[in-house]
Prior knowledge:
Blueprint: H1 6-13, H2 17-40, E1 45-47, E2 60-62, H3 66-84, H4 90-119, H5 126-154, H6 157-185, H7 188-195, H8 201-204, H9 208-216, E3 248-249, E4 252-253, H10 254-263, H11 268-275, H12 279-294, H13 308-321
Antiparallel strand pairs: 1-2, 3-4
Helix pairs in contact: 2-3, 2-4, 3-4, 3-5, 4-5, 6-7, 10-11, 10-12, 10-13, 11-12, 12-13
Amino acid sequence: MSQPTATTEAKRSMRTWPVLLLTLPAFTAIWGGWVGLGEKTGFGMINLLPGMVDDGKWSTLNTAITLPIGLETYAAFALHTFMNATKQGTLRKFAGWSALASLLLGGGGQVAYHVMESLGWERAPLWVTAIVGSLPVLVLGLGTVLASLIRREANGQEDTTVKVSLAQRVAGMRSSVQAVTAAARGNVAEVAANVTDPKGIRGVAWDAELEKDLDAHGLRPVVEEDPTPVSPAPTSPAGPRPPRQATTRNGWDVAKAVRLILDTDHSDTEIGDLVGISQKMIQRSRRAVRVLKSDPTATIPEAWKVPATVLDVARREIRAMS
């Protein structure tokens, strides 16, 4: 037979009934205060079924008891929800703030009743009556919102589904951009690896606009090899130019982008489509290249947000041109 552990004994020793016992006097005082305040603000004996049940029968109720039942019960439940919420989200924030507001209203009601009772006032001022009379409607609205938030968090599978589908779409878009970049470089094998998987990109997050762009620029993957021989590039009198290693950054060819910018025959949109980056990045890079073309040693401000790789390649290309 297993012996009880220290943890088990600690759990058994923790009881909540003494705390509940201590709250009974507070509950009694709160109940009496709200009933007394309700009677001073127009709450009292009301026949809930007039014309159907005689006055004074079972359908006659002192509506002043609805104040402690509604407001204080909501405050306790909202505070319980706040303390036991598992995530830092809308539910926990709303439960905490509404519980604090309910407790402050409850405390204000108790203060108002005892002040008026000590002064011997039979009727509450009009502004107090207006506030107390609106409390049932306020509790109804707060309770409805809190219940909706609790149910939405309990059915949190919808939010998870949205996040997963969004993550899948971002992954598919990234693969699509890589396919466009590879096609711009002429790497047919890499394009085929990125766009021919029907269950990968097309099945998850293939973007129709990117697919149209591939067709428009003739960048679709071609599986069959072209038998036409490619003639060698002409060489300069000084000899063939040594091959330049492609400088890439985050998957796009920086050297090719800089050369297209220096060529001045291509628009920002065309360069962005060929290289696979945004038009805004091309605009910033063109602005920096224009400055470096006048002075290769110039310092480009960081506020322009031009990558250092672009600046290095631009200086190198400009020196080679001169």
